[in-house]
Design brief:
Elements: E1 3-5, H1 7-15, H2 20-25, E2 32-35, H3 36-49, H4 52-64, E3 67-68, H5 72-87, H6 94-106, E4 109-111, H7 115-125, E5 129-130
Parallel strand pairs: 1-2, 1-4, 2-3, 4-5
Length: 136
């Protein structure tokens, strides 16, 4: 099964928070993916922290990760899905909708702690959503 991990889940993994590291390590590496959107968000996060260690961790992740690209198919899917969310009264940022579109085109399960956005995105796109950061 393919899992597309959202930016927040990858950041918890890199910071070894919320038990996410154990969930990630328990998966086959080929089952885990990151979108180019999340990679860009993580790189910006690492630069903001001014931490060489954090930049190195993000760089290492991006060298070894399986990427879901934001390609033409994603861009073609994006406007209709963002409009559908808006018609339901859900204003959701471009990044999260693009991540959802990447998952939809790849048939991946979305893994995110951002339930506020991804519950609606996954509903519109017909995707499964898991939260590996839930305590319990």
């Amino acid at each position: 099964m393919a899992y597309l991990l959202d930016t927040d889940i990858w950041s918890y993994f890199l910071k070894d928070q919320r038990g996410v590291r154990e969930r990630v390590i328990a998966c086959e590496l080929t089952d885990l993916a990151i979108s180019r959107v999340s990679a860009a968000e993580l790189a910006a996060w690492a630069v903001r922290t001014e931490s060489t260690r954090r930049r190195d961790m993000v760089s290492s992740l991006c060298r070894s990760a399986r990427f879901f690209e934001v390609d033409l198919a994603v861009w073609q899917m994006f406007p209709d899905d963002r409009a559908e969310l808006a018609s339901r009264g859900r204003t959701i940022g471009m990044s999260d909708v693009l991540i959802g579109c990447c998952a939809a085109l790849s048939g991946a399960v979305v893994v995110s702690n951002n339930q506020k956005h991804f519950t609606h995105i996954c509903e519109v796109l017909g995707l499964e959503l898991e939260n590996w950061a839930e305590q319990g």
